[in-house]
Each structure stands twice: as structure tokens, then as C-alpha cells.
Amino acid sequence: MQSVITNTNQLEATALKVREHIIKMSTDGGCFVGASLSAADLIVYLYSEFLNVNPNNLTDPSRDYLFLSKGHDVPALYGTFAELGLLDKDRLKNHLSISDNIYWHPNTKIPGIEFHSGSLGHLPSVAIGVAMDIKIRGGNNKVICIMGDGELNEGTCWEAVLVASAYKLDNLIFVIDRNQFQANMATEDLIPLEPLHDKFTAFGASVKRINGHSFEALHEAFSAYPFEKGKLNVVIADTVRGKGLPSIERRADRWFCNFNATEVEDLLKELHGEHTTQLTSETLVVR
Amino acid sequence: MSYEELLTEIALSDERFIVMTAENRALVRNIPAKLGSRFIDTGITEQTMIGAAAGLALRGRIPVVHALASFLTMRAFEFVRTDAGIPNLPLKLSSFIPGFLSDGNGPTHQAVEDIALMRGIPNMTVFAPADEDDLVKMLPQIWNHPNPSYVRINTRKTDYQHSPFELGKAEVIAEGDDVTILTYGLLFEQALIAVEILKKEGLSVGLVNLRSLKPVDEQAILHVTRNSKLTVTLEDHFLTGGLYSIVAEVLLKHSLTANVLPFALNEKWFKPSLLPNVMEHEGFTGKQIAEKILGYNTRFHQPEISIPQFSE
Known about the structure:
The structure holds 2 protein chains of 2 kinds.
Chain A: H1 8-24, H2 33-50, E1 65-68, H3 74-83, H4 123-137, E2 143-148, H5 155-166, E3 172-178, H6 187-190, H7 196-202, E4 206-211, H8 215-223, E5 233-238, H9 261-271
Helix pairs in contact in A: 1-2, 1-3, 1-9, 2-3, 2-8
Chain B: H1 3-13, E1 17-21, H2 31-35, E2 39-41, H3 46-58, E3 62-68, H4 69-75, H5 77-85, E4 92-96, H6 114-119, E5 125-127, H7 132-144, E6 149-152, E7 171-174, E8 179-183, H8 187-200, E9 205-209, E10 212-214, H9 218-227, E11 230-238, H10 243-253, E12 260-265, H11 275-282, H12 286-294
Parallel strand pairs in B: 1-2, 1-3, 3-4, 4-6, 5-6, 8-9, 8-11, 11-12
Antiparallel strand pairs in B: 5-10, 7-9
Helix pairs in contact in B: 3-5, 8-12
């Protein structure tokens, strides 16, 4: 059955607000802006349209689960939670404040975050455990794990694909934010990943590769869940690091950014297509 | 009762239990047929097994996970620390062939820093039973405790009947004014032999089976170091980070000092061979321990040390 999405305008509007939140968190200490912007549409789509997660079912065992494995894209999650009523918007101002728990990687003190991350290659296996338990109990919950493409350097990601395939976890979806960059450079210039679709297929998964910034494409792909009975689902979402801000898009030196107040103001205008920002702050800040 | 019988009984009576292994089935051969989907073998993937166990624990399960001690504690260390330690999830680690029990495998398989590593993780609890009787007396409490645990699995049989286990309490076997041996794990067998020899040589000798290394029985350690002229720490572990270190930490915490003789592996791995040869070569037989404490050789006979069956 071909499913048609009708509310792309609303999703676009939400994603724009999420990007505003991300930009506002990219100062006074900064954050991983590029990866957050690449994952924003994906995360907005999944929480708005696909996942059975809402403020009232966060501890209900029948809810769906999303695990953010690469972790440093968590500003996109904070922003999405704020827009969907899972997190008080005022708390976003507490980014990196000692009095709150909103920092560079996910943690479970934020309701709705299922597990902490930051060390790459962990959550694929944690998601497997949850998916296994759902299978044992005969539940219908969906389990998603979002990984970065750079994260796929970690061997445990591939162990997880082997094990998920062996256990026929068709209730599990690994989503790859394929923004083409890892911390310091393009993935293909360091540890090439392509042909990525073929790699996952060879490991036993059922794979869809889509434009991760198109809500139509996201909807078409996720509407086909489960892709094949008895197979791990993999979605490779082709994305752009820094999406929405042409001045930092696809730039290896704009991974972690700590902008000054003027830059933030200009970037917010740039996001709305009104301006091109002259970035003056230090470029590559590798942490 | 064996380890496997106990685990089967507990898992069958409590749906929360999941038995997992990274293809180390020696201790759980018959469990797949009994537990069905609550038995999970992830293949040779210690890290993925620990991560998946954390996911299962998030859903209310109590995963009892099995792997060789060195791979469980070292290859998967960061997963244990990050996915069990940080969220304080009840992952129950059963480590196979820890310490000298890896006998002929070689240094890759020697977990002789496992106690140091595991006790360094916040929320983790650490245990080392003296033999199979001790093991089955200890495990029900350990598995029902809300924290993650690390247990040096030791299924060797001795004639000793242990007292009931209390988490965080040592088992005081005997008290003595001259020498007291503090030990854990399979060296308990040799400590019993050493105690007999020392007694026959006229000394007043004590023996404590630590059992619980974290939380540790500080009062038992303080009692021994106060009341015995010499305290001996006996362990198949590196000198750094194990029982000798624990005793030092407890003494320092109370601004005390004591006369302590450690038996441990000092900055080295042990020479691989069958277990009795390893013990003899490294100087850890009961007779060798007693003679080192005495400072002279005796005419006593070292009883035969049984050879463990090979199992992967």
C-alpha cells in the first residue's frame, strides 16, 4: 500500500523551529551543530509521524523506542522534544548549565531519552536487547537506533547487524544519518563506507536508501515497515551536514561550533533565507 | 547442586531471568532446551552481548551473562562500565575460568586484573566464591540484588561446608593470633592446607574467605589486622588492585597500618600449564604458602590438586 503524506508543511515548520533551537544552542560553549542539522528532519519525522511516543506513554512498555547512538546530534532531539511537548522549551536555555541535564550527549534524566550515549557503537546492541525482549513477549513495539555514518567505523555496529540478522529482528530499524562526514573529514577520505547499501544487504538486512531531508521520502520508506519478514530494517538517510545553513553545509571544519552572539543572530536569519553569514569564530574545534 | 542446576531452577521460577552467553556454553549446556527464547547466545560478541543485556534489563529483565573472564572484563570493559555501570542496571556477569582457572590457555585468557577492573566501576558489586558449595550459597542473593554484579565463577568441589552467605560479609573460618590468611576464590583450597601445616608447626592461625570483594567486609579486615601478628593476602590476581590493595585501602581509611604478606602476581602473568603445575610453579600450593610464611621447609605432603576438565 502506497502511503501519501499530507502534512509536510507542518513537518517543515516543526523542523525549522528545531533548527532554530539547534542554532541557539550553538553558543556559550557550543554544540555539534553540523550533525544535529543533518539529523533534524529525520528525528522530527520519526517522533511526529512514525513512533508511538508521547508525553503520556514514556514509561509504558508498549511504547516505541528510539535510541540515538551517535549521541552528539542530541540538540536535534532536545529541539524536537521541545516542539512536541516532551520537554519544556525554557529548559533549552539551560544547555550546558550545571543546574540542568542538557549537555552534549543524551542522558536519561531527560524524559523520553531511553538511554545515554556518546561512546559510539553502543546503542545498536542496547536496541537489540530491547527488540529481543519485545519479540520474547510478543509485542508490536518498534525499535529504532539512529547511527552516524562515521560511527560505522566502530566494529560493534557490524557485530550488531550480524546478531540482529541472526535473531531475525524485523521489529528493529537501524537508521544511518549518512551526512558524508565524520569528525574531521569526509568519510570517504578516511575509512570509505561505500557501497553502504550492499554492505548491509550482505549482512542480511533489508535496506532502503532515501533522501533524509524529504518528508515524502521518509514517509514512503517508513510506511513500508517491516521491510521484509524476519529481516533487520536499515534506512540509509542521505543527508547534508549542516543542512539549512549554507555557510556551514558540507564543511569539514564545521563539526563542533561555538558561535558568538552576532553569528547566532545572523545564522538564524540565514536559516530563513534572509542573509548570508560571515563566520568569524574559530573554525575547527575538535573535542 | 551445580551452577547450572541452580541457574535453571531460578530462571524457570522467575520470568525476569534471561540467560545469555557469547558462545561460552560450558556452564549452560542444558539451558537452551529448558528456557527456550529466554536463552540467548549472541555468538562471539562480548560487547554486543553486554549491550543487549542492558537493553533487556531496560525492559525489566535480569540477564545472567556468560563469557570467559578475560573477554567479559576486558574486551567488553567499556560496555560493562557504560551500559551496566552508568545506568546501574542489574546485569549479572558470570565469568568463566578467572585467575589460575584458565590454566593452560596462556596470557590472552588470564583474567588476573578482573577484580581491580570490576571494582573500579561505580554501582558494580564483585564476588569470588571459594568453591561450588560457596558459589551456590552466594548466587541467589547476588542475583536478586538490584545492582550489576561480577562473579568469578568457581565450580571446584571441596569437602568444606560453607556458612550461609550474607552480601558484604566475609566468612570467618578460623581466628588466630599469629597468622591470618585472607583469601578468595579457588585459593581457598590451598589456604585450608596451609592452615593445617601452620597449626601443626605450632602457630595460632586464622583464615577468612572474603567472598564479597565489593562491598567488602571492612570490619573483618580490621579485626584480622588488629588481632593477628601477620596478615596474609592470598589471591590469583595481580598485586595491583586486588585484595592486597583492598586491605591497604581499608587500613589507610582508618589511619592504620599492619604487617601484611601478599601472595599475588607481581607485574607478571603466570606460566601457562595444567592447574597443578601452575600452582606449583608460581608458589601457590598450600605447602609452599605455609613454608613461605614459616620461612623454612617442612616435611608435610602437598595433597594432589585436581585438574579441571577442559572446556571452551
